[in-house]
Structures are given as structure tokens and as C-alpha cells.
From TrEMBL:
PROSITE patterns linked: AA_TRANSFER_CLASS_1
Entry's Gene Ontology molecular function annotations: identical protein binding; L-tyrosine-2-oxoglutarate transaminase activity; pyridoxal phosphate binding
Keyword vocabulary terms for this entry: Aminotransferase, Pyridoxal phosphate, Transferase
Pfam family, one: Aminotran_1_2
Cofactor(s) the record lists: pyridoxal 5'-phosphate
Subunit: Homodimer.
GO biological process: L-phenylalanine biosynthetic process from chorismate via phenylpyruvate
The name this protein goes by in its record: Aminotransferase
Residues making up the signal peptide according to the UniProt record: none
Keyword Transferase appears in the UniProt entry: yes
Amino acid sequence: TSLFTAVEMAPRDPILGLNEQFNADPNPAKVNLGVGVYFDDNGKLPLLKCVQEAEKQLVDAAKPRGYLPIDGIAAYDKAVQGLVFGTDSAIVSEGRVATVQAVGGTGGLKIGADFLKRLNPNATVLISDPSWENHRALFQNAGFKVDTYPYYDAAKRGVNFDGMIAALNGAPAGTVVVLHACCHNPTGYDITPAQWDQVVAAVKSRNLVAFLDMAYQGFGEGIKEDGAVIEKFVAAGLDFFVSTSFSKSFSLYGERVGGLSVACASKDDATRVLSQLKIVIRTNYSNPPTHGAQIVATVLTTPALRAMWEEELAGMRVRIKQMRTALQDKLKAAGVKQDMSFITLQKGMFSYTGLSVEQMQRLRGEFGVYGVDSGRICVAALNSKNIDAVVAAIAKVS
Ligand code: PMP
């Protein structure tokens, strides 16, 4: 026996497993709608022009690669705060936000989770049912008990808001509630501004801790629009957490660029919170990497590049919306009887199609159309060349 004889094989990541299956499929007409990645109309992962431009500048500047501060590039952290809370917001100008650079949005969630565990070790974490697959494991690995609050209503094809709000109103004080700030993954269904008001009121009256996961800012309705929910939590005077990801909005998946912001009641609180976030980072990976965050900081703080980014981001957002409309219209034209109007009500990269496990498996086996068994498809992977094949396949299994 070796040291590792008793080590069990861990289960495969279900979505990465789907990718492997896709790659092995000899069907020339296969379409991969399983991944959570934006592709352009040619089915290619875009490298944004603003990113190329910023990289050129960085290469020309030929800067040495010393260690970054533990909390990352100062200009980057400031730019993240501006995006999330608004550059002119009182909470930012009063120094009441502690922001750190993180290794992707996942890193932001994990730094926040580790800090929360020290702050309130006995809290339960509530995630939406369903949620991004990694939420549960991430908070469990940070030592928390993880439960769910109702979210998706399959029969209604929408959000079970009554169930959600009842769960929040029934949660004990200190419970951490993970909320998708916009573009809910995996369902695509967001709650309305009026419903957000009720969530904020519940968080406040029950003394809950909101943790907003903002992985898709700019993919729903716009940068400002998608960030509007943050203002509601600030206005209510709550202390809360926001994780940021630039993986999608800058198409910088592999650079691992994200952040964590903690909104505090005072500058003094923010200073002490920041000092603790830095300990979490220091004891995990010491300090973050330079390249991706430098690109994002350069783009966000250079007016011409920022304008370019906003346009390119709008381009991605608009293309997704066009694909939603096209999918809805083409399914109808293909004779699919059931009401598909939910497709254009959903936001962001994903759509819960309402298709069953059996239908999703038939799509894969008979037509080479790969989605997740839950019925989730990535609308951002549809394009003008593959959509007709996808529609034809869905029509056949419907
Ligand atoms: N939260 C949600 C809801 C996500 O969908 C994702 C990415 N798929 C993340 C967090 C993680 O983002 P990143 O890849 O930047 O770590």
C-alpha cells in the first residue's frame, strides 16, 4: 500500500465531462451549448480590441514583474469599486468599501467565504435552487453548512419569488445569502427591481448577510443597469459582499481577473476588514498575478479604451439578445407548439429551456447538440451558422 492507496477517485466536473464527450463526438454538425463561454458569430472566443490595445501598451512599457501588493493593483481595485458602486458614489468617496483583486470571480467568492467563516463560523449559507454548480462546494470547503432557497419554478417557467422571500424571512440572523446580482446562472431568470426591494428589506429586517455574485455585469441590460441592485443594498445601509468577475465581460477567462468588495458602515470598519482580507490572501497564495488585472485597469482608466470596451461589451450583449429572439422565432416557425416566450425574458448567457433530461440526451445522442441535462443551454454559443441545426433538433425532440 502507498500513502495514496485509500484515496478515492473524485467525481468528474459534470460540465467539463460534457466537453470531453463533445470533443470525442465524430458528428461534423455537433454544436456545444454546454459551456459557459461567449463565442462570436463565427463560433470563436473573442479577443477584445481594447484588450489587444492595452496589451500592446503593456508590452511597449516593458515593466518588470515584481510582487503586487497583497490586495492587488491599487488602480485596479479602485476601478472595480467604480464599476460596482459608481465612481461618484458616497460609499466610495467616503472610503467605506474594502476591495481586493482576486483570482477570478471564484477567487473573490472564496476570499469572502474564508473571511466570513472567521467572522461568523456557525452561519449557514443559502444559495439559490438551482445555482452555479461551484457555489455549494466552495462555501462547504470554506467550512459552512450550505442550504438552498427556492428560486426556479419549473411549472411557471420563472422565479418562485414567494418561496424565495419566505425562505429569507424564515432564516436565522447571520445567515449568509448568496444572490446572483444579474444574469442568473443557470436559469437566466432575474428578479424584478421591486422584488429586489423586498429581498433588501428581508436581509435588513432578518439581519442576514448578503453576498452578491456579479459574474456578468454588462451582459444583461448594461453596465449601470446590471449594477443597479448594488445601490439598493447601499441605500439600505447594509454591510454586504460583492464578488466581481471579468472573465466574461472582458473575455479574459484564462487570465483569472476578479475581485471582492465589502461594503462597510464606516471607513474605519473598511480599513479593519481590508486588513483581514489581506491575511486570507496572504495565507492562501500570497499575492495576485499581474497581467490580467493590469489589462483591465488600463482599459478601465484610459477613456478611449474604456469607450472601446463598453462598445465591445454592448456588442456581445446585443448578439446574445439577437440569438434569443432568433431562437424563439425559429422554434415557433419550426412548429414547436409550447410557448417559448420565456427565452427572450431570460438574461445573460444561459437559458433554461424547460427540456427534460431525456430530451437533452436525445439532442446529444441523435443530433450532436450538447446542453446540460438540467435543460440549460448557453445562448452565447449560438450563432447564425448553427442556430438552424439547433432549432431543427429541438423541434424533433419536442
Ligand atoms: N459566479 C457565477 C455565477 C459564474 O457563472 C461564474 C463563472 N462561470 C463565476 C462565479 C466564476 O467566475 P470566474 O470564472 O471569473 O472565476
